[in-house]
Amino acid sequence: MNFKRIFIYTILISGLASCSVGDFEDNYTDPSKLSETTVGKQFTGMIMSNRQSVLPSYWDYFVIKRITSNRYSQVVGWVNVENQYVPGSAAVNDRWNNFYNFMAQYRELQKVYNGLTDVKKEDNRVFMIAAATYFYDHTQQTVDLYGDIPWSEAGMLSINGGDYSKSYAAYDEASDIYTKMLDDLLGFANELGSLQINPATVVDFKTQDLINNGNIDMWKKYINSLRLKMLTRVSGTSEFSARAKSEIGAILSNPAQYPIVEVNDSNIMWDIYSLGTVIGANDFRSGLEDWNGNIAGKAILNHMVSNDDPRLTYVFQPGLNANGEYLGLDPLMNPTEQDALILTQTLSLYNFSTISRNQYFPGILMTAAEVHLLAAEFYLKENQDAMAKMHFEEAVTQSIGFYQYLRSISNNAESIAPVVPTAESVNDYLAMDEISWDAASGMDEKLSLIAEQKWLHFNVIQSNENWHEIRRLNKLDLEFWVDNSNQQNLPPSRWMYPGSEQTYNMENYSVVQPQDKLTNSVFWDMN
Amino acid sequence: MDKAQKSLGYATSVIEADELVKVGNTNLASALYGKAAGVRIQGGAGGATSPVNIQIRGINSITGKSQPLIVLDGVPIRNEEVTNNNYWGDQRLRGNGLLDINPADVENISILKGASAAALYGSEAVNGVVLITTKKGKAGENGMQVDFNTNFSVDEIAYLPRYQNVRGPGMPSHILNLGQAADGFNYTADGMRTVPNSSTNYGPKFDGQPMQAWDGITRPYNAQQDNYSALFNNPVSSQINISISNATEKSNFRLSLTRQDNEALSLNSKNSKNIINLNSSYQVSKKLTTDLMINYINQNTANRPYSIDRLINNFGGMMTRFDNGAWYLDRYQTSRGYRYVTGNGQSLTPDENITGNGFRGDIADYVWRVNKNQASEISNRVIGSLTNTFKFTDDLNLRARISTDFTSRYNESENYSERPLAFGPSGSFGMSTELFSILYGDIMLNYKKAITEDFTIGAMLGYTARTENSSSVGRSTNGGLSTENLFDIVASTNIPNNSSNRQYRTIDALLGTVNFDYKSIWFVEGTIRRDRISTMNPNNNTFVYPSVNTAFALTDAFDLPQFITFSKLRGSWGIVGNYPDIYSANIAYSQNSLGVQQLGGSNVLFTSLPSSFGNDGIRPEQKHEFEFGLDTRFFNNRFSLDISYYNAQIRDQILPLTLPTTSGAFSVLTNIGTLRNTGIEIQLTGDIISTPNFQWDATINLSKISNKVEKLANNATELLHVDYDGNAAQLRSVVGRPMGDFYARPIALDANGNQVVQPNGLYKIDDQKWIQVGNAMPDALGGIINEFSYKNFSLYAVMDFQIGGSVMPTGINWMKSRGLTEESLNFMDEASGGLAYYRNDTGQGVGVPHSTAQGPNGETVYHDGMVMDGVVADGSTNTNVVSQAFYYWNTYNWGGPQYSQSRYELYIQDNNYLKMRELSVAYTIPNQITSKIGVSNVNISVYGRNLFFLYRSIKDLDPEVLTGGSRWTQTLTSAGTNPATRTYGVMLRARF
């Protein structure tokens, strides 16, 4: 053994073991992740991040709607329990966090877009219009639950380069958020009419667009229908009433320039194209059915039964031991009797095949029935009764068609076959005393008809929208059990902010803290 | 005392081979309970394949890794982290790499605790270092020496909750109408007594009369006392080890072979290991020595223990008191071998369908899975190192070492078809391979020179580098097996699933030390290290940190009283750097594919940014620690006392700062935490009695740890770790407090501070407030070791204890809500403190004397009443008497205020215990007898492990079953791993 050998050993060993600068650089990044993305991919990612609020999910139904909107709108029957009118903290936190994660993905899309050259920006403009529309739709949903929210400065962590100290977001006033959204959507409605989209973007947009499959006309309809919805929502406030009147008028009188969703074929929905993708299995079943969350409320069921509503056998089904009889749960019964009644399995349930066990149930964003009801309200208030009636009846017809559509795409046949509506049964329904437009006298009664049809149409499948409109219109005389154990003894007017804001965003939260009460109304709620 | 020990300026604990093997522990770590001051061991339930956590001097990271670095004969080895508390992610209990080290091959373990000790080992030493030295070759009397030992042991299920044996399933009819007759029993249509359809156990008392169970069989209505243990094995384990060693002037070697067969409680779970350990050293020339160590572990694991999460943390899986695991073992499969079918479900054998009340689908599902979902693992691990030491001169040598720790694992899963193919495909097959490797090398130049007679200096310069790779590739069937029970990918109904994963990490370091020694009285050593690591931004991935330590031999320097044999003062100060977890600093998009989403469409790809934000500018965290110690031995080493005080501050703690989600993420990786751990460690040893025939040696060690979160961000006052059960409880770390505060919802108070009782008679839970209930960090822990010997007999006992450290075993508390445990019997009748009452027409309970026959309007009088102490809404004192069944059912239920009226504050309890960990009685056959057959040192012993508690504050479980993962937040709440066990064994040791 000599020095040479030792030397060779040493070189060999250190050669094997020593590391190059390149190793450190390569191993810094996760090989399965990407350092860059494209506008298209992030656009779809943004839509995906919000899927649990759009496609029926266990989380949205069981954790959130089961104890909030479903009850506040009495579309379900439930066993009364102490403190039931305080929105659960898990629900309030989760809904909030989900929205802001969605917003973070939207901000990331903006960041990617803003990093493009001007030419590229022009190419990708259509993505940004679609993204903003979709984002605004869900912003409205969130504002209508909470009131003022952090918005214009929110979700900026990535744009601020990870500097969290700059990213604590202040609250925007709800009406300012509406103003900004309405301004932008008006701009989009005009811009999209003349937007030139280059052929490469057309292909990319068609692939990435999970909502309208790249159909620009559908996006126009979505934008204008959304405007109609937002304008109607704020139309009762002094700040917006004039604007609402003129803009709704402009939309409804200019179908060529401002097309809207008029028939079920142009409903704006996130369709389930195939099962078994990473979108995840539809867990509507456990979301709605667990803990008896799918029991029919007495008021809504009685309305449908007593008026021979053609939607009845699509929306509900009799209980297992009910011998085909429909029975809803009375909210004013005492809890022990309610419990006992549930155990008898005679209460009616939301239809398994149309709704909870329908694995192809779409994510609903805008339907023709809703749009027609908005139009009917506008014409009613404009004293154009014939137009109002036409839209009202069209809304009912479209709603019936919509439930038929939902059943037709279902892959579940556990519920008994529905009674298929005929032109005659629809007309009979429209002629019922409680339904008929002509039988109602005066603005107030007719507005009640609209309110009831919204309630019937939205029922449990769009119960947040239901609760918003019930609060705004205040025409349904729903009776609630009074909970004497809590100072919130009836349904609230809004949700509280989640505890995380108070803990982690104290400085900004303190500004809105005085208004953070369940009894405070959202600004558009004039009742 | 050898010089190396004398010169040490920081605390170490050394555990010798002898103490590791006395009770046949299957792995090293679980042999360390109570044996070293400041070291906390937490072994997961489930047997030999379950992970063991080691914590040295508390927890050094608020959210990060807290396991020490394991170094085997100078080279770092793999010891991965595990997560066993996520049932839906993984149903089987995984182990860590430390389990593979065989105690029989270990010469000693030395535990380096402080920052100063870490200079040689780098950043991972921030959590301490466990240095394992394997046995070297030794010559026997006639050259070759052969050692033999074998043991055999049985485990039994232990420390189950104290189940009640008084009442069966059901509820009083005035609480819940389950269709009970007037006598409280349910009856079938033909008048047979049958169990009600309920998971609660507040039903009629057991009376031994016939009762029909869910399987249709009528049995006497008696409590099924051991019903739960019937779901588990009676595991038997054995171990044989033979080693051969020899040493000559030029070389030495030791070769050892071990066979371990370990069964676990979980049915069909078995682990077999073959371990070969070779340790050799050869002096090639006067100047060159070559050491070779090879450790080969071949392992075959059939069915790692199946998590019992669904039986503990889930009402649907809680076995009632009139139900039995044995009944499920009979009925989990049909006569044709398919999964049981309930109700009117499709089946080839419809008359076997289970239709009776009281059937718990989750238990049957567990029994099906544990029997019919088979998973096997074959793993081969090689840990090898080659070391060359070249002596240039007597003063200067160069040591170069290269080592690898390489594991290849092949996994297969075979899930049997659950139903006939005609009813749709079921079952599955999966296969995957995993590779883990660590390649390590170091080169060190050592210099030592006596400058004068009194003064010696030394220096060392070195470089170490390490790369760690792991990868896995797997395929599995999709949509069931297209041929029943054909276990291969070809049986996949749809296009097979596939998965892959890769991780790479690179670390290197330059290091140097300088030391001097004055007359062997005063020693000083200084070190400096420069680390570079790939988990940091490449532009800023190096960090330099120093340390110094010194030792001063008081007995050599001064004239101390005679009875002090030796006394040494030591002190050290050092910094260790620590780095982010792999890939956590880098910010990157996740991408996934949705496939085609429209007619004629293309594949849709999408990206998203993670909600935990990284940070490219992250800096290394720094642990600054100083420590002082005094090591003193008395009366010729008969007694000794070792005390250490340490104070460590971890600055720039890398942790995910919780953000309001309105900022754009749930958390962002930041350098914002400061954490301080201070503590005192004391170890006392003594040969208390030392006569020729009788000896008593005792060791007591104790460590007191206090931990404090000193700072979070600019304004942040707390960090949320976990939210439990929909806002029912939370685990947080709050500035100014030890980390790990448990918070729960309090009882609502009115304006005058009175507790508010709701109209239903239960306390109102305040869903707007939180109260701090406990803290997860233990205050003190330690061990007591006694060894007695009388002539050839010896008795060895190890106890370990813990004081403080709250846990929240939710599943065990939920059992109270179902009336399963003894506590739920309180107030059930007059004898157990229940009040008498009747229900008035508004449903309020009105208290009456027990002698009352009936209420004023003929109402029934009940005797199981309780009254909550508080006021009702109008401010008047609550008088509403409620049934104790109603109280327990609701108070220990699942969920936050949104879901229930559970009081999670009652679930959180301090975990104090003193446990008899190891006990062994041994007899050594005198050598003059055995030497006639050429054998020496023959020792026969009987032993036990985890035998009993001398004291415990939590009575319904062994707190160690809560060890659901490697990080501290995973060891607090879930009892759904596996039941605890008690072990008895016999052992034989001999030398040839």
What's the layout of helices and strands?
The complex is a heterodimer of chains A (527) and B (992).
Chain A: H1 3-17, H2 21-26, H3 39-49, H4 51-54, H5 58-64, H6 69-72, H7 89-114, H8 118-123, H9 125-146, E1 149-150, E2 171-172, H10 174-194, H11 199-208, H12 216-234, H13 241-253, E3 268-270, H14 284-289, H15 298-306, H16 312-315, E4 316-317, H17 335-343, E5 349-350, H18 352-356, E6 363-366, H19 368-381, H20 385-408, H21 423-431, H22 442-458, H23 463-473, H24 499-504, H25 506-512
Antiparallel strand pairs in A: 1-2, 3-6, 4-5
Helix pairs in contact in A: 3-7, 3-9, 7-9, 9-10, 9-12, 10-12, 12-13, 12-19, 19-20, 19-22, 22-23
Chain B: H1 3-7, E1 12-16, H2 17-20, E2 39-43, E3 52-56, E4 69-72, E5 75-76, E6 106-112, E7 129-134, E8 145-158, E9 186-187, E10 193-194, E11 210-212, E12 218-220, E13 236-247, E14 251-263, E15 270-283, E16 288-302, H3 309-312, H4 325-331, H5 361-372, E17 373-391, E18 396-415, E19 428-450, E20 455-476, E21 497-518, E22 522-533, E23 542-553, H6 554-557, E24 564-578, E25 590-596, E26 603-608, E27 612-613, E28 621-634, E29 639-658, E30 667-690, E31 694-711, E32 718-724, E33 729-734, E34 741-744, E35 771-775, E36 778-790, E37 793-804, E38 806-807, H7 810-817, E39 835-839, E40 845-848, E41 861-866, E42 882-883, H8 884-891, E43 909-910, E44 913-924, H9 927-930, E45 936-952, E46 980-991
Parallel strand pairs in B: 4-7, 27-30
Antiparallel strand pairs in B: 1-6, 2-3, 4-5, 6-7, 8-13, 8-46, 9-10, 11-12, 13-14, 14-15, 15-16, 16-17, 17-18, 18-19, 19-20, 20-21, 21-22, 22-23, 23-24, 24-28, 25-26, 28-29, 29-30, 30-31, 31-36, 32-33, 33-34, 34-35, 36-37, 37-44, 38-43, 39-40, 39-41, 41-42, 44-45, 45-46
Helix pairs in contact in B: 4-5
